[in-house]
Amino acid sequence: MKEETKILVEKGEMLPLMEEFYTIQGEGFHKGTAAYFIRVGGCDVGCHWCDVKESWNAELHPPTAIENIVENAAKHSKTIVITGGEPLTWDMGPLTKMLKDRGMQIHIETSGAYKLTGIWDWVCLSPKKMKLPTEEVYRKADELKVIVFNNDDFRFAEEQAAKVNEECILYLQPEWSKREKMSALIVDYVMQNPKWKVSLQTHKYLNIP
């Protein structure tokens, strides 16, 4: 990467863009909503069950000027979801300001492992055991989405729920490869602990990208 480009990436004026696409939000509170997804490369949290491992290495994804990203987004939707990878690896301030200036509603999907930068209308926090969220992200999370891969994840979910604000909506979501077994366990758990809600990856059931 050229030194000039590297500096722009560090400032958040260019980002390693993996993909961008218009689709239906499949998970959590906004499921069923048409949204434009911006997937940023780069993540060192390292979930072994991650379904987008190709996003981990930022160097595989071309540094892209945020002006171009915003122009593409504006053609499709007023609801923007920034995901990864781990988007907070980078400074989200410049991109989100530019999107806000265009009147966008901006959501982030994050593990919360890094400093919360940017202007957000909705923060979906999906914490991971390997690298826990910062205190600021816990405070500002609008929804907590814990992926359930094994039984210990219920314990982890309760630990995380104790750290978020009182208004935060709590979701348990089965990891896709374990969805049949874990969905049944989650249903039982939510019925016994109704502060939680069930989240499913509905876009996968509908074969939506």
UniProtKB/TrEMBL annotation:
Residues that bind substrate: 24-26, 39, 83, 209
GO molecular function annotations of the record: 4 iron, 4 sulfur cluster binding; carbon-nitrogen lyase activity; magnesium ion binding; S-adenosyl-L-methionine binding
Domain Radical SAM core, first and last residues per copy: 30-209
Coiled coil: none
First-tier enzyme category under EC: lyase
GO biological process, one term: tRNA queuosine(34) biosynthetic process
Upper taxonomic lineage: Bacteria, Pseudomonadati, Bacteroidota, Flavobacteriia, Flavobacteriales
Record function comment: Catalyzes the complex heterocyclic radical-mediated conversion of 6-carboxy-5,6,7,8-tetrahydropterin (CPH4) to 7-carboxy-7-deazaguanine (CDG), a step common to the biosynthetic pathways of all 7-deazapurine-containing compounds.
Pathway the protein acts in: Purine metabolism; 7-cyano-7-deazaguanine biosynthesis
Encoding gene, per UniProt annotation: queE
Designated name of the protein: 7-carboxy-7-deazaguanine synthase
Organism: Aequorivita lipolytica
Oligomer and partners: Homodimer.
PANTHER family tied to this protein: 7-CARBOXY-7-DEAZAGUANINE SYNTHASE
Pfam families, per database record: Radical_SAM
